[in-house]
Amino acid sequence: MTTTEPLDVQPTALALLLLGREADPRSERGVECPGDLPAPSDPDLVARARAAKARLGDRVFVLGHHYQRDEVIEFADVTGDSFKLARDAAARPQAEFIVFCGVHFMAESADILTSDDQRVILPDLAAGCSMADMATAEQVAECWDVLAEAGVADVTVPVAYMNSSADIKAFTGRHGGTICTSSNARRALEWAFGQRPAGGGKVLFLPDQHLGRNTAVREMGYSLEDCVVYNPHKPNGGLSAGQLRAAKMILWRGHCSVHGRFSLESVEDVRARIPGVNVLVHPECRNEVVAAADLVGSTEYIIKALDAAPAGSSWAIGTELNLVRRLAKAHPDKQIVFLDKTVCFCSTMNRIDLPHLVWTLESLADGKVVNRITVDPETERFARRALEQMLALP
Ligand code: 13P
Ligand code: SF4
């Protein structure tokens, strides 16, 4: 049967997100870029970006995360992992504009760590992070109530991965915790366990269960049984009071949609294809992948390991594809392959492209501040406390 009745179908939040329109109230990011962007086919984009950056001079400082596209990285004054970029942003008080080529939570952190008269700009407001979206302020507040009910909130220290919204960072600061990144997660956990009475302390690690588990189990000698997973979509997180009391690590049920795709099969497959290959993965990968790898570390660690590797060695890298491709190009004397056969860019990191960067730089040079990222003062106060605790880690 056919019908001529119009279908009353409203686009879902996800469809709007993909179309780059309107707002998704469940997301830590915006979803639209209100600019008149140059066409991606414009042959003058590189020259326009250069000219606009030159017009701005020292007034602008461009930060580029390692997962950014080559066309964007070319214009970065510094590149780094999220820890290095947070420090670099804080160490540049003379720059009027910090253009953050990365994702929303990184730009928020930069705004928190810079002075009030510095303006942090994200070239595309839709560059969010699906992992950061997996922990909302309401869910985390509810989790804390569950811990209080089980009688363990007093002995629990929150440790939040940098990949979280400013609200989650503020929650962490309010409850005496710290932020961490993939390059200092072990130091953050050691500090956190040292904050509570000997033997009785626990950590609530959010939002990446994998980084929390991998750091505790692989680097600190905790067992998988010491870890429980709090699922915000289940009553009481899906855990009994007894399970919460027995756990050392309470892991939030979040993950990275890029690193979560690497599997044990990808490791076995590459070992069969390339004899003697070194498997090097990011700690956001699943525990069985990390356990099967030869080396594990943050993006900055991965870059340094390849710099130090002997010519002729073979490497399979489990992290975002823009970085792996750049590393393969930079080291023609080594065999560097992507760990998984299916292509795997981070789609939100990739939203920052040359047209968005040109539009941003030209707008700033013309005196128009676009896509400014600001965190409200109350959130900023407590989030800064947690970020400064991270920067002060031994
Ligand atoms: P790092 O920059 O800390 O290595 O984290 C990787 C990542 O997923 C950033 O979003
Ligand atoms: Fe988020 Fe993963 Fe992309 Fe990093 S790589 S921004 S954690 S989705």
From TrEMBL:
It is found in: Cytoplasm. Keywords: 4Fe-4S, Cytoplasm, Iron, Iron-sulfur, Metal-binding, Pyridine nucleotide biosynthesis, Transferase. The keyword Secreted does not apply. The keyword Transferase applies. One of its GO terms (molecular function) is 4 iron, 4 sulfur cluster binding. Its EC number is 2.5.1.72. Its cofactor is [4Fe-4S] cluster. Belongs to the quinolinate synthase family. Type 3 subfamily. This is Quinolinate synthase.
